[in-house]
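Researcher: I need the complex structure. Ligand is fe (ii) ion. Inputs:
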Amino acid sequence: MEIIFANEPKEKSLKDDIKTLKRIELALKKSKQLDQTANMELASQNFKYTDCHLANWNPERFSLLYGTWLWNQSSEYQKTILNQLYWVAYYSQIISAEIATIFFNQTCAASLYGVEDFRIVCDTLDLESAQERAHINAFKTVSEELEQTLFGERIFTYPMRTPFVKTMMYSDLSKFQQWLRTQQLRAYTVLSSNSAFVGCQYFTVRGVRTLNGKIVQHQLSKFYSGMKDPEQAPIPAKISYYHFVDESFHFNTSTVISHDVINSLKPPTKFESYIANKSLWGCQKDHYNFSTAINGIFWYDPALYKPMYKILRSPVFGMSHEEALVAIEKSFCEESEGATASAKTHSEAVDSYKAYLADFKYVDKRNRDMLLMSGNNLQKHLQTNKKFFETFRKSI
Ligand SMILES: [Fe+2]
Ligand SMILES: [Fe+2]
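Model: Output:
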């Protein structure tokens, strides 16, 4: 029975929206049943790079610099390493995003817990944060061992860090812009933990940011689930599958909170709408670029020249200084099957973001139309890569 004290206006409550409440309860129950944490932990414990160092870990087209000059020149062994390096680079970016996710799950749960009957939403987020820690541990274990074995140093991995360091590993932000971004994140921390609307709206950003990841990660997970004998699959391929299972629930949470739970809150103030649109604009900025090196992650290619140079100079490719520069220029600055495929993924992401945001009343036109992000294309991308290659050549 609902208790309403005399002379108190009735607060908005999730219990007024039984359909959504039931959906969240059912999703949490299923998510607990299918929780992949134990599988993730076991996979991390059993991983030995030497057990799977000659195997592909992803479908072939998900390889670093797939369909470029370097790919076409590479031996079968080098192609396998490029395939494994895609896994390492991809999930190193996912680690960075998930460090932020863990943090904002908590700050948003703080504000949502301030609304009557939101406990179930907070419990869901608690489970997700614990799962993210297991995901990060698995990605980190595999990636660090590969890099240590093949290169004796870090290439894409990094020591653990806070969510304020960098969410996008290779971006075009200057040092000042990066500093500004950190200050914006700090402000967003305070706002999201104090305003249920901003807390809820974070899941719009989380939903948009993971839409593209969902498409790629589905492909990566199918590499394992489509195998004749999945038990014999390389451990990293199994991890991709386990991760996709957990993340499907996370994506569902983002969708339900951003589309439905938000209706159980008071309408946003002008300031709250402004903050919501500002965070979506930031998402467009982060996803403006796309990368020829890694289809499906919106990295800024010129920032990848240096790690790529290290890989090409390592014993895996054994290139001289000049050879490595030729390989980078030909692979990043010329039109190729790989660059075209990455551009296509980027434009598919734009379309899916637009569809996700179509029915939100508070989203402004610039965000609804993905004005900034849709302004990039293959020609601009190649021009940028060419322009910054000259700077790189002089600097190294
Ligand atoms: Fe995850
Ligand atoms: Fe997640």
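Model: Summary of the prediction. The first helix runs from residue 18 to 33.
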